[in-house]
Each structure stands twice: as structure tokens, then as C-alpha cells.
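Q: Convert this sequence to C-alpha cells.
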Amino acid sequence: MGKKIIELRNIVKKFDDEIVVNNLNLYVNENEFITLVGPSGCGKTTTLRIIGGFESPDSGEIVLNGEVVNDLPPYQRPINTVFQRYALFPHLNVFDNIAFGLRNFNRIFEELKSNVRKQYEQERRELQRKLNKKLTTKSERMEIRTRLLEIKKEIKEQIIEERDKLVELKLQDVEKRYSKKISEIEERIEEENKRDDEVKEARERLRELKEKIIDENKNNKFWQKNGKHSEELRELKKIANEEELIALEKLLKLTNKRWEEEIKAAKKLMLSPHLIEEEVRAALKMVKLEGMERRKVHQLSGGEQQRVAIARAIVNRPKILLLDEPLAALDLKLRQNMQYELKEMQRELGITFIFVTHDQEEALSMSDTVVVLNNGLIQQIGTPEDIYNEPKNRFVASFIGESNIIRGTYLGNKRVEFMGAVFDCVDENFEVGEPCDVVIRPEDFDTVSLEQAKLVGVVDATTFKGVHFEICAIIQGQEFVIHQYENVKVGDKIGLSVDPYEIHLMKVN
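A:
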């Protein structure tokens, strides 16, 4: 069990007196890929926006890393969002779009403030609860309000103190790193400056070699490109022109410049320009867009724009990444590729992903945990396998994949009766004679001869789905969907059987 990074406690959200999120309770573990799935209007995007701070709940608490953040604005939360429409800046190129957050947001300082606030969180919440109680006296209320003001002041003072300490540590780190780098470069420059005699000898040898080549080839330019002495010439020119010394002096100048940049950045707890460039290039590599830094947004395809949006979201390493149907606008093949890449990216980064989609297949293929929502209520939470194989109710069974749902009666001893036949099953948490809903997935039916069949239907329609045929058959006036690899003709009779472990029973609501 991982550490809880998000908790939603009794969240309620209304729009125009209509309840969109209804008393929702949910927790998300660190480094988990969790997907909210459900039909349009079920509350999944609203839940995502509440986590991100773009919507405020009417009641309930949002807890991030142990801190209640209901009143914390989006930019102060350790969260980034990839929107369905990407929301890229059209006037900026790819590099500047990705670098925007690094240049304009201080993630380190926000984390520092959060850590300080958490130290007072329990006391503040207890005081707030006591303040809200009717039995609290007037004098007690005054004391509580005084203490709450003191806490606010203490938090502010401690944040300043902790910030100064952190700045000092960062300045010491910069000093240590660059002092060593500068010292190493200066030592190498000093060594190069001691090579005066070697430089003179190289220049003399270079002059002699040039004259020799001219005499040999009778061509003033031949030695530069095609002469048999070209390799020796290159080495001599390096020494004679003191190329190593010039390169080291340039490196010393660049290192001193970067040192100054990092000192300025450290005082603001931000990244220096060259470190921003390194982070942006690493993000571009991760989303496979190397070499496209200077492209304008309008020059990119939909898939490339989506990758830029993802790179911009991950570049400053948030603890949580919210993804609001980011693949909806992509074509099928690209969408499938991006599903795989997003999952791999999440594993590599170790970031908590909260993904919203209405696509059941997408939810099942990408997630560690799936949350099925309908009408603002959680219908079921579980692994993709649990959600598909063990649906809790009719809605989940019908929404996640295709299902045949038949009313039956539990007979006891792991037997169930439906459609006039008795079947063995594996469920047993029912009373004898209790009505139940029987769920059979289309792919779980076995086609058998009519003599061996427990169910016999008449084929009403058949459709080729690429991998299999989808057959609709009418059995006792009810339509059943069957998937099989061989086709049948409309009007033919079809015999069906099903193994016990392929039958799932649900309580009747």
C-alpha cells in the first residue's frame, strides 16, 4: 500500500442547484496511475478541477500530502494539468512554451511553504472545529481567534526563516560546485601557458611542413585538404594556434557567467537560464520532440501539440499530474501509441497521474486503479481486472465493456437458474432463492451443438469486428450478444454454453 498523496473527503459540488459531485470520498496513492471514467456529465472532470483548484467544493475537504488545501489557489498546489485542448501559448515557440513554468513559478518555495503550514495543520483544524461548536463560550472563542492569528503570524515568520536557510544552503552549494570547476579550469590554463617552447617548436615545424608540401605538390592549397601530412598539420596547428588555451579561456568565461546566473537564481530559489535549458531539453527528449525547440505551435500536428503540453506539465516535476481527456482529439493509431507512452512516462517519472476519460478501453489499458462514476457518485473502485471481471452493479457491467445481463435466481451450492436453465457458478454470497443479476461477457459464451446447448437462440444480426464476429441472437425474446471467430447466418439457430467461472452474479439493487 503506497502513501496517500490525495484525499477527497465528503466532497459536494453543485451547479445551479444540480448536484454534480455527490458526497465523494476518494484517496489516491503516491506514484499511482488512477483513471476517472464515466459518461458525460458524471462529475469526473469537475472532480479533477476540484483537485487542481480550478473549482471549489461546496462542502468537504481536499487534502494534499496531509494539508487541507481548499483555499489554496491552483499555482500553489504541487499539481500540473494537461487540458483536453492543450492550452498552448500561440505566440511562443515549443521551447518557450515548455520553459514557461520554470521561468515563472517557484515550485521549491511553494513546497517550503506547504511544509511549514503542515506543522500547524492539526492544531489549526482542532481550533477551527472547536470554534464551530455551539457549546464553545464567548471567551473561548476569543482565545481561539487570538491563537489562530498567532498561528498565521508564526507561519509567516517561519516561512521567511526557512526560506533564508534554504537560500543560504543553495548559495553554499553553488559556491562549492563552481569554485571547484573554476579551480580546475584555471589549473589547465596555467599548464597550457607553460607550453611556450612547445608552441614555438610547433610553429617552426608548421612553417617547414608547409614549404615542403608546396614543393612536393606545386599547389599552394593542396596541403590544406588532401596532403599526406594533413593529420600532422592539424595537430601542429592546434598547438601553434593555442586552440586548447583559447577553448579553456572561453570555458572559463562561460563558467563564470553561469556562476553569476546561478547565484542570482539561488537567491530567488529559481533555476538559472542554462539549467532551464537542460530541463527543457530533457523534457523534449522524454516526449520524443528533440530538435523541434524553435517550431511555432501552429506548425505542429495535433499529436505534437499534445506532446508539448505534456512536456510543459512535467518539466517542473509536479507531484501530481492531472490529465483531462488529453487524447480525445487524436486519431485512433496515435491515440493507442500515446496511451502506451503516457504509461511508460508515468513509470519513469514516478509522478501520480489522475486521468479523466469516457473511453472504457483507455481506462482499462492504462490504469493501476479505475474509478467508475455516474451521476456524481462513485459506482466502483478497483483494478482494471476487478472492474471488468467483477462489476458491482448493472451500470458498471454495462458501461465497462459489453455485457449480457439477465435476471436469475440463486439456488444455493454455487448454482444459479436463469432463462429456464440451471448453471454452475463460482459466487456464493447469496441466500437460497435470492434474485440476482447474472453477467456474462460476449466473449465468454461457448458455441456448442444444439443437443449440448443449455441456451438456444436465433441469429438476428452479425457484424465483422476485425478480430471477431459480433453476433446478436434472440433467446426467449431477449437479445444476447456473442463474440466468436466464425461467422453464422442470420436466421440460423445457435447453441450456447458458458463455464462456471465466466458467470458473475450481482446483487439486485
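Residues 138-193 form the longest helix (56 residues).
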